[in-house]
Design goal:
single chain; 163 residues; mainly beta; Hypothetical Protein Pfu-838710-001; ten-stranded antiparallel beta sheet; 47% strand
Length: 163
């Protein structure tokens, strides 16, 4: 599942990213294509069509201080594709992954555009060479976010967002 922070100003995320160095795990770059035929991704030289099975969003108010969380249980499946739609828009997306430790089942994912020169957003993270455009927590569906240990781990990142 993905957990989003409701109404967080993405333009302030670059300040937050400066505090994340000790939690950095990995990053990856992939290409996403948007067309009338759907959304596609190029990952490790393979081409996939992304199919989303939408689920209801669960709202958790005041999870940490005034932060309201949006829990999305939607599922993406990836279908091999061999034909690129003629009309499409392509975006290079960089994903940075952060966690409190290497074995954590809770990952903070920050996505952004690494086409810095053509970006109109001035919120640029020099540390991670990207313009942040989205962030969320990636957590397994069977994890209870109200468990004390899980809450403590989520609050590590939420407290940094609160600065």
């Amino acid at each position: 599942m993905k957990i989003f922070v409701k109404n967080y100003d993405i333009k302030t995320l670059d300040k937050f990213m400066k505090l994340l160095d000790k939690y950095y795990i990995s990053s990856e770059i992939n290409i996403q294509l948007y067309s009338k035929e759907g959304i596609f991704t190029v990952d490790n030289n393979a081409f996939f069509k992304i199919k989303t099975i939408d689920k209801d969003i669960v709202v958790v108010k005041n999870y940490y201080k005034s932060f309201t969380l949006l829990i999305d249980h939607s599922i993406n499946t990836y279908e091999n594709s061999h034909q690129l739609p003629v009309e499409h828009m392509a975006f290079t997306i960089k994903k940075c992954c952060f966690a409190t430790n290497n074995t954590s089942k809770i990952k903070l994912i920050i996505e952004g555009n690494n086409d810095i020169e053509n970006s109109t957003n001035m919120s640029f993270s020099k540390e991670y060479n990207m313009v942040p455009s989205n962030f969320y927590f990636d957590i397994s569906d069977e994890i209870d976010i109200n468990n004390d240990f899980v809450k403590q781990e989520l609050n590590v990142f939420l407290s940094l967002l609160n600065l």
